[in-house]
Amino acid sequence: MSMSRPPVECEWLKAPQAPLASAFYRSQGSKEKVRGDEQVAVARLDGQIIAALRISPRDGHWLLRAMLVSPELRRQGIATELLRFALAQRAEPLWCFALAALAPWYQQRGFEPVSAAPAAIEGPYRAYAQRQPLTLMCWQPAHVRL
């Protein structure tokens, strides 16, 4: 983490606050929109949302989606801080479709590349992977092993 920036505050948004995350994504040029059944974590700097991620339910499984940090604040450890916050209380595995170039970053943070996943995860992964190079990854809480 860079010492040149003030500390960020990470929090889970409550359902009525979800439009704040959608507005953040829009402000960054992303078409991502938060769904009502998703868990959303954000990082704030001076009260402003500067990063967000979504965790989507998929037939009893969980998928990490749309982790985004404001471009001018990237490479300062904010994504790592937000991801650690999101993983801290998780009791279930968390799946991720990592852009191939970012797979090492996710691996350094506890995600492992996997060759198979439950159908609710693998189906969407195969569809997305046809459009861009992705790595199917899974994070496991300490008490759970594949």
From TrEMBL:
CDD domains: NAT_SF. Keywords: Transferase. SUPFAM superfamilies: Acyl-CoA N-acyltransferases (Nat). Residues 1-135 form the N-acetyltransferase domain. InterPro entries: Acyl_CoA_acyltransferase, GNAT_dom. GO terms for molecular function: acyltransferase activity, transferring groups other than amino-acyl groups. Coiled coil: none annotated. The keyword Nucleotidyltransferase does not apply. Gene3D superfamilies: 3.40.630.30. This is Acetyltransferase (GNAT) domain-containing protein. It comes from Ferrimonas marina.
